């Protein structure tokens, strides 16, 4: 089989690259291992489909941390406003939520994906599903494993957009990580990102509070602190605020086997006010009931304090108000493991940016471009993940068009 451009991976990055290529006049075939497209995209839409964020672009780019200089050109060329206009053109207007996050008004992915696929079909994009990429043969042809056997495809250019390794049952299983290194391409090991962590809770705490949320808290690790919510699980802790610190926490756990997360249970109360409240006489109240009334702590927050006291062999009843106030707003939680990459929202690691030229083409493999979560970057939830996938898909598509034009294809 021959095709103009092969796009491998039918997630947001691959579909966006296909759209750019088709608009530029290229004949495009999208290959994917799954029987339908955009499975992880649809899963993301179950929570409202947070497309991007409305904050100023300079602040937005800083969310990508070490990868920001490598991603900035692609995101500046296809910024959040452009992504919103793109969704609008598909009949899916967006709105800005109270947190600054951007969502389609439909609050799900399926209407947008259906409209997108109709437009891709109208532009001539073809799809070959149940095609699992296995690399190249000795003649440089793409190899695919299909229900009918091995299939070889000759392409003038290829865009790889196979995703990372989170939620592998939806298609992005990281199976490509051995293929590119065999061609000399440097690939950083894939690691869980925006993930939860294991904690050795006591049996009593696990049974009573597994599944309970911690609201209105602040979490800190080293110099970084974030506000938000977390969820106690039977095996540990997860949730938006935890995900925001997951890179630092993950690296610490992987380096030394553990990390300490500090939780401020009442971050909106000043130290002086909290000490004053805790100086009130307890009289005949139980200690838990007194804490609930004096510091407005929820049962799960009080349980967390008790867990910390057991771990540090400190009796809460013996703590003076100053020390108790200090503990309430800096409860130490020892993290003993990282949730598996299969359960993570996204993954870190991937193809090193130094392997790419300015057009997202692999220097070692001319005419092969890379986009999306295959690349070595990570970002918090909040719209940053999808924005970078869309933007790098655009960049790879434009790069492939440029290469095709320069080579007369």
SS class: alpha+beta
Number of domains: 2
> How much helicity do the residues have?
25-40%
The tally of beta strands, per DSSP, is 19
* Major beta sheet summary: 7 strands, mixed
Tally of helical segments: 14
Arithmetic mean of pLDDT: 95
Q: What is the 3D shape? A: elongated
Indicate the CATH class of the largest domain. Alpha Beta
Report the CATH architecture of the largest domain. 3-Layer(bba) Sandwich
The gyration radius over C-alpha positions equals 25 Å
Strand residues, percent: 15-25%
Supply the CATH superfamily name of the largest domain. Answer: FAD/NAD(P)-binding domain
CATH topology of the largest domain: FAD/NAD(P)-binding domain
Distance between the termini: 17 Å
Report the uncertain regions.
none
What would you say about this model in short?
This protein has 409 residues and is an alpha+beta fold. It is 35% helix and 24% strand. The chain has helices at 12-23, 39-45, 57-62, 68-77, 80-89, 110-122, 203-209, 240-244, 246-256, 271-278, 287-294, 299-312, 321-328, 384-406; strands spanning 2-8, 28-31, 52-53, 94-96, 101-104, 126-128, 132-136, 142-146, 149-160, 187-193, 197-198, 213-221, 224-232, 236-238, 259-264, 331-335, 337-338, 346-351, 368-370.
Notes on the structure:
This protein folds into two domains: 2-192 and 348-406, FAD/NAD(P)-binding domain; 197-338, no CATH class. The chain is 35% helix and 24% strand. The protein has 14 helices and 19 strands. It has helices spanning 12-23, 39-45, 57-62, 68-77, 80-89, 110-122, 203-209, 240-244, 246-256, 271-278, 287-294, 299-312, 321-328, 384-406; strands at 2-8, 28-31, 52-53, 94-96, 101-104, 126-128, 132-136, 142-146, 149-160, 187-193, 197-198, 213-221, 224-232, 236-238, 259-264, 331-335, 337-338, 346-351, 368-370. Strands 1, 2, 6, 7, 8, 9 and 19 form a seven-stranded mixed sheet that branches. Strands 16-15-12-13-14-11-17 form a seven-stranded antiparallel sheet. A three-stranded antiparallel sheet has the order 3-5-4. A hairpin with a 2-residue loop joins strand 12 and strand 13 (224-232).
């Amino acid at each position: 089989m021959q095709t103009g451009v092969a796009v491998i991976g039918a997630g947001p990055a691959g579909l966006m690259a296909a759209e750019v290529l088709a608009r530029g006049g290229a004949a495009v075939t999208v290959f994917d291992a799954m029987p339908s497209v955009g499975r992880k995209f649809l899963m993301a839409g179950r929570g409202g489909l947070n497309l991007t964020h409305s904050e100023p672009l300079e602040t937005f780019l800083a969310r990508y941390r070490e990868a920001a200089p490598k991603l900035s050109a692609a995101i500046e060329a296809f910024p959040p406003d452009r992504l919103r206009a793109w969704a609008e053109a598909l009949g899916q207007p967006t709105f800005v939520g109270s947190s600054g996050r951007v969502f389609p008004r439909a609050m799900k992915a399926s209407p947008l994906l259906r409209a997108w696929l109709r437009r891709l079909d109208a532009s001539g994009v073809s799809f070959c599903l149940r095609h699992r990429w296995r690399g190249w043969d000795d003649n440089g042809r793409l190899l695919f494993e299909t229900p009918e056997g091995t299939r070889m495809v000759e392409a003038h250019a290829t865009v790889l957009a196979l995703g990372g390794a989170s939620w592998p049952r939806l298609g992005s299983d990281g199976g490509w990580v051995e293929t590119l290194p065999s061609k000399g391409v440097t690939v950083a090991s894939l690691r869980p990102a925006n993930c939860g962590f294991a904690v050795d809770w006591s049996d009593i705490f696990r049974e009573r509070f597994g599944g309970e949320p911690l609201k209105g808290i602040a979490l800190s690790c080293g110099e970084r602190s974030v506000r938000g919510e977390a969820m106690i699980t039977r095996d540990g802790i997860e949730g938006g605020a935890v995900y925001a610190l997951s890179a630092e926490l993950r690296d610490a756990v992987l380096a030394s086997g553990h990390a300490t997360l500090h939780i401020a249970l009442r971050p909106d109360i000043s130290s002086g006010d909290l000490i004053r409240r805790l100086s009130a006489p307890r009289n005949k109240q139980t200690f838990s009931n007194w804490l609930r009334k004096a510091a407005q702590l929820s049962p799960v927050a009080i349980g967390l304090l008790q867990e910390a006291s057991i771990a540090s062999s400190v009796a809460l009843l013996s703590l003076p108000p100053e020390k108790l106030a200090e503990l309430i707003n800096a409860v130490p939680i020892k993290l003993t493991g990282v949730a598996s990459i299969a359960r993570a929202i996204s993954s870190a690691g991937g193809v090193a940016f130094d392997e790419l030229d300015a057009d997202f083409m692999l220097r070692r493999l001319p005419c092969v471009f890379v986009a999306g979560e295959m690349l070595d970057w990570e970002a918090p939830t909040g719209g940053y993940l999808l924005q970078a996938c869309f933007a790098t898909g655009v960049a790879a598509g434009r790069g492939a068009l440029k290469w095709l034009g320069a080579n007369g294809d």
